[in-house]
Amino acid sequence: MKRIVFYIVLSSMMSSIITIAGYKQYTKAKEDPFLFPYASSLSKTKLTSSDSSPLVSSAGVPDFTRVVEKTIHAVVNVKNYSRKYNNQFDPFDFFFGFPDDYRGKKPQKNDLPGLHGSGVIISPDGYIVTNNHVIKDAEKIEITLNDQRSYRAKLIGTDPSTDIALLKISDKNLPFIYFSDSNKVQIGEWVLAIGNPFDLNSTVTAGIISAKNRSLGILRGETQSAIESFFQTDAAVNPGNSGGALVNTNGELIGINTAISSSSGNFIGYSFAAPSNLVSKVIQDIKKYGTVQRAYLGVRGMDLSKTEYLKAYNKETHQNIKSQQGFLIGEVFDQSGASDAGLKKGDIIKSIDGKTIQNIADLSFIVGTKHPGDKVKVNIIRNKKKKTFKVTLKDLQGRTKIRKREQISPSELLGAIFETLSKESKKDFGIDYGIRIREIRTGRLSSIGMEEGDIILSINGEKMKKPNDVDRVLKKYSGDVTIKSIKQNGQIYIAGFEMN
Fold first, then answer.
1. Phi/psi at 365 (nearest 5 deg)?
2. Mean pLDDT lowest among 60-69, 153-162, 265-274, 314-323
3. Strand, helix or coil for residue 273
4. CA separation for the pair 497, 500 (Å, rounded)
5. Beta-carbon contacts of residue 128 (< 8 Å; ≥ 6 apart)
6. What are the residue ranges of helices labelled H in 49-205?
7. DSSP structure string for 103-149
8. Distance between the two ends of the chain, CA-based, in angstroms?
9. What is the rounded distance in angstroms from the CA atom of residue 229 to the CA atom of residue 272?
């Protein structure tokens, strides 16, 4: 039994990124709150005079009162109303910060079960960031501000890969938090976590950044393309903090609280937050394109700190690679940016665009903030010699162009290429319809355990007879999708996911 179980508990959101250099920049930021936080030309308004150290009270202890006053009104309570959480117990619900008060009750008319989390207002016109798991399967989303004003929220978009969601409420001149450049966050820096643990509104805790670039594996149940590079802090967070704010002592957003490390579901010392630069990229994409524009390097491999895997690799390849910082390429995908540039199996990636690659979390974070078509400089070691490659990143279909959601076919979102089922296969399985998965990559199907060779019989009850039936049934569709299939061993397999 694992000593420590990672549960997704607090997650949140962040969307725009605003920074200022003087009153003019400030005015511009107010007009467009979705400026990127890492725009180097903009400087940020500081709460303290010169650094991010907390103010010190007359008693000689840190004083966070000004930071709290600046930020607490921008953190909201997010309530997810969904019948899916009634009469069932999903252990993840609790650890995501959802109290189980409503389970086992039969909902009356207009009385859906409610689950609680947190969110962060990121623009004065009502955009709110939270965690995807906080609003997942919601039939209604209710936002309550610190002053107890309530709103019905609209879901703008979600990204399971980062566990981020973007919401919108209708109002103006709302309090909001500016984004900060998370690349500048340092280990040992003071931070505050603001959220609604156990449905207790506007709770603030303090701590420090304990570590950076943590990959926990907690999002891979949602999608195989998960991007995890969390800040680790010792600021206390508990169920209900998911989607809440992690801010620095300037009152700027540096992360969205997402998870805790615990064997009980309650805080025992460590919490984890998605960094603001990644959150910003996700919400910018959702707002501008309707979907996240995910870029890929096109490699698979492992951390060189994983000594047990490294020993197995050395034995298989008859090499003697030592444990070190870096990412060892075990496979280069055909027609990917990495393949086009000349990267090979056995190369050790040491840096991308000058940023050191210590592990897979570094790699996924840096690439995760890029778009298809972006060019990156990759420094590697090959046969003990240093080499540099310029790689043009692509999407999963090998494209380098940005495409809006309406330009992306359902088949692409599913991450698969299909083929018509042969007469022989139909006879072997005793069926007269179905399509086979000829090729599968990261996408909705891989996230629910489907594999190449599986036969899809129906989608949402409609029989699949030819490959374009997938796009016909799912085109412009939003909501739950149920897929009935036959595994290669003949087993009937039914699974589902949410299309949004």
1. -70, -50
2. 265-274
3. strand
4. 10
5. 13, 15, 76, 78, 119, 120, 121, 122, 143, 153, 166, 167, 168, 169
6. 65-71, 91-95, 132-135
7. TTPPP-TT---EEEEEEEE-STT-EEEEEHHHHTT-SEEEEE-TT--
8. 36
9. 9
User: Tokens standing for 109?
Assistant: 């008319």
Tokens of 166: 């973007």
**Alpha carbon distance 333, 247 (integer Å):** 39
Residue ranges with strand state E in 263-343: 270-275, 299-303, 327-332
Residue 277: count other Cβ atoms within 10 Å of its Cβ.
Answer: 27
User: Phi and psi of 406, rounded to 5°?
Assistant: -65, -15
Report yes or no: 132 and 156 within 8 Å, Cβ to Cβ.
no
* Residue 187 CB contacts under 8 Å (≥ 6 apart), including other chains: 208, 209, 210, 211, 212
pLDDT of residue 19: 29
**Dihedral (CA of 279, 281, 282, 285) sign:** positive
Q: With a cut of 50, say whether residue 89 has pLDDT above it.
A: no
pTM, two decimal places: 0.71
Q: How far apart are CA 316 and CA 313, in angstroms?
A: 5
Report the b/e string of 98-130 with b at 16+ CB within 10 A: beeebbeeebeeeebbbbbbbbbbbbbebbbbb
Residues marked as catalytic: 133, 163, 242
